[in-house]
Write a structure and sequence with these properties.
The chain contains 5 helices and 9 strands, in the order ββααβββαβαββαβ. It has helices spanning 21-28, 45-60, 105-119, 134-142, 181-185; strands at 6-7, 11-14, 66-72, 78-84, 92-96, 124-130, 146-155, 160-170, 189-190. Strand 1 (6-7) and strand 2 form a beta hairpin. The radius of gyration is 16 Å and the shape is globular.
Length: 195
């Protein structure tokens, strides 16, 4: 099932719809929220519509996908997003409106998504964070992800040289090999003593 609806104690995780464009714009137009995200802040609702089509509607047409709006149960309005890419990285990504930071909402959403993809047979999740954004790494740790390595990447489209830390969560217990694509692609890679 593509992007099955999930519920947690405080949240509804569901597909984005066209009626969510204003909420998507509110989230992705904030420069501080977008500081560590792989795109530029949205400038208007037309860009929000294009973003919706490219990042959500296209995924929802696939047989399997996990791209969610994070909504509070109180009003079912998107305050963030969380998703897992369906390429071989199974990369977990997330973002949340600033006024909802530091409440454990992304961790709560992440646990629900991780449980769903495990039930659906994905063997692992990966996630990366900029070393200058350690709070994102804290979310990964709370989800049970283990640090694997760090690497440099010229990050596009922002054209910034970034050092990322890569975390991974294995589900099958058989193979605990680190996902190597980022390591192999980077000329600068190393293992840090990360707590």
């Amino acid at each position: 099932m593509n992007t099955p609806r999930l519920e947690t104690e405080r949240l509804i995780l569901r597909k984005f719809t066209l009626t969510d464009l204003q909420a998507l714009y509110l989230l992705l137009s904030d420069k501080e929220v977008n500081r560590f995200l792989p795109w530029f802040p949205l400038r208007d609702l037309d860009e929000a519509r294009a973003f919706f089509e490219a990042r959500y509607a296209s995924v929802y047409r696939q047989p399997q996908g996990y791209q969610y709006a994070i909504c509070q149960k109180t009003d079912d309005l998107p305050i963030g997003y969380i998703g897992v890419s369906m390429d071989d990285s199974h990369d977990l990504g997330y973002g949340l409106r600033r006024e909802f930071w530091h409440r454990g909402l992304v961790t709560e959403a992440g646990r629900a998504v991780a449980a769903q993809v495990k039930r659906d047979g994905l063997p692992y999740l990966t996630a990366t964070h900029d070393v200058n954004n350690p709070r994102s790494g804290d979310v990964m740790k709370r989800l049970g992800m283990q640090y694997q390595y760090s690497y440099e990447e010229l990050w596009q489209p922002k054209n910034l040289l970034v050092t990322f830390r890569m975390y991974q969560l294995h589900f099958d217990g058989k193979d605990t090999t680190a996902y190597q694509k980022y390591w192999n692609a980077s000329a600068v890679r190393f293992v840090e003593a990360v707590e």
